[in-house]
Write a structure and sequence with these properties.
VC0802-like, Rossmann fold, 2 domains, 6-stranded mixed beta sheet, 13 helices, about 40% helix, binds adenosine-5'-triphosphate, binds magnesium ion
Length: about 400
């Protein structure tokens, strides 16, 4: 019975001259996310985006299931509702309510003996002959005629079923449910970035948060083969695939850090190793980002979470690159990161126990404060490390989903 989906957005609506760019991007992303629903048209009409079949035929239940699963991944959407489109005629609107309300009221009756309903009408079309209040009264009558007082009551504040009606300039529509979108801005309306993706809990969440602000995310992961087993790398691949459900699939660069880790092991202060590894990861990531058109790096770092994330160490790590580094989790507690990971569907994967990827030769008591000068002194002992980094970069494998 629902023959259109209305998508509402918030933050895009306050954009000025380039609002159309944001809207067009959202339209494209919705097409991508709904590519398994055959023959749909996504269009923007006055501050809303509409999904319909060109013939305006109703969506099948299976199609609605896909839509309800996919649209919560379309960054930019605040909420969406399946609707029944009607002409600008109160009789037609009443008939639409008459034909559709039963399903929702009956569902409410299975939960409560006497459920409550309300009508919420809005009218942006001021030429429509009835004002909102009058529309509500007409529609309430339609519902009341179908059900007796002992079956259904009215409750304007706390209703089990809300019949929504909007009367616009060109058409009117009826809806019963609103589903939450993810908010944010459509992926692709900001520059692409490269995320340092480990198999942990935090970096996938950092990817999600950056996508939410409109950036397409590619990934880079570091391992220490032969010390890292294949299952650890496969786990990161699966996390990337899960994250790609929110965007057109990003590439995963898979990089073996072991040669430089050995050099550090053999030459530098053992307590500084973790920070020195991280500086090398950043250097490699920056080069890959520049080569592939990514404009910033992203990490899952948060102040104070582990030894390498004290302010002193973050400073020392950050100094290794000149590129902007985004740390969307910077002020989050671990529990907040976990809650988000659960919400976006990466937690189950992250918590799988596999051997760590880059902790070989890591000290049992890493330094919580490696001042920049100390790190530089250590690196002075790594004669010709740049050539090793270049070789490592040459050996990067790229995993592209579906290829
Ligand atoms: P995560 O849960 O994301 O692994 P964490 O709290 O375990 O984070 P660290 O392991 O110190 O913290 O890593 C901090 C950040 O450095 C990670 O969020 C990630 O962005 C990056 N990072 C660490 N290890 C790797 C790796 N092997 N490959 C790619 N990035 C990594
Ligand atoms: Mg980690």
């Amino acid at each position: 019975m629902f023959n259109a989906i209305i998508c509402r957005y918030n933050e895009i609506a306050i954009k000025g001259n380039n609002r159309a760019m944001f809207e067009n991007r959202l339209v494209e992303n919705i097409y991508d996310l709904l590519k398994t629903v055959e023959d749909i048209k996504v269009s923007r009409v006055r501050g809303r985006i509409w999904v319909q079949h060109p013939s305006k035929r109703p969506f099948a239940d299976g199609e609605l299931d896909i839509i309800k699963e996919q649209l919560p991944r379309a960054f930019g959407i605040e909420s969406f509702s399946p609707v029944i489109m009607c002409g600008l005629d109160i009789e037609e609107i009443c008939n639409a309510v008459d034909g559709s309300c039963g399903r929702f009221i009956q569902a409410a009756m299975t939960e409560k003996t006497v459920p409550a309903f309300r009508i919420r009408a809005t009218r942006s079309n001021k030429k429509f002959p009835l004002i909102s209040k009058e529309i509500e009264i007409r529609l309430a009558k339609v519902v009341a005629i179908k059900y007796g007082d002992d079956e259904l009551k009215v409750n304007l504040k706390n209703a089990d079923v809300t019949v929504g009606c909007e009367v616009r300039d060109e058409f009117a529509f009826i809806f019963y449910q609103s589903f939450q979108g993810p908010g944010g801005l459509p992926v692709g309306c900001n520059s692409p970035v490269l995320a340092l993706l480990s198999g942990g809990i935090d970096s996938p969440v950092a990817c999600y948060m950056t996508m939410k602000r409109g950036c397409r995310v590619d990934y880079i992961t570091f391992h220490s083969t032969p010390y890292t087993p294949q299952i650890t790398i496969d786990k990161v691949k699966r996390i990337a695939v899960e994250l790609n459900r929110f965007q057109r699939p990003g590439k995963l660069h898979i990089c073996n850090l072991a040669p430089i880790q050995k050099l550090i092991r053999d030459n530098c202060n053992p307590r500084n190793r973790t920070v020195l590894y991280r500086r090398m990861m950043f250097r490699i990531a920056e080069k890959v980002a520049r080569k592939t058109g990514c404009m910033a790096l992203v990490t899952g770092e948060s102040v104070g979470q582990v030894a390498s994330q004290t302010i002193v160490n973050l400073n020392t790590i950050n100094d290794a690159v000149t590129m902007l580094v985004l740390r969307p989790l910077i002020g989050m507690d671990k529990s907040e990161g976990i809650a988000l990971a659960e919400k976006i569907g990466t937690f189950e994967l992250s918590k799988e126990q596999v051997p760590d990827s880059c902790t070989v030769f890591a000290p049992s008591a890493p330094s919580t404060a490696v001042p920049l000068e100390r790190a530089k002194e250590d690196e002075d002992l790594l004669a010709g490390y740049e050539a090793v980094l270049d070789e490592i970069i040459q050996g990067i494998e790229v995993f592209t989903e579906g290829k």
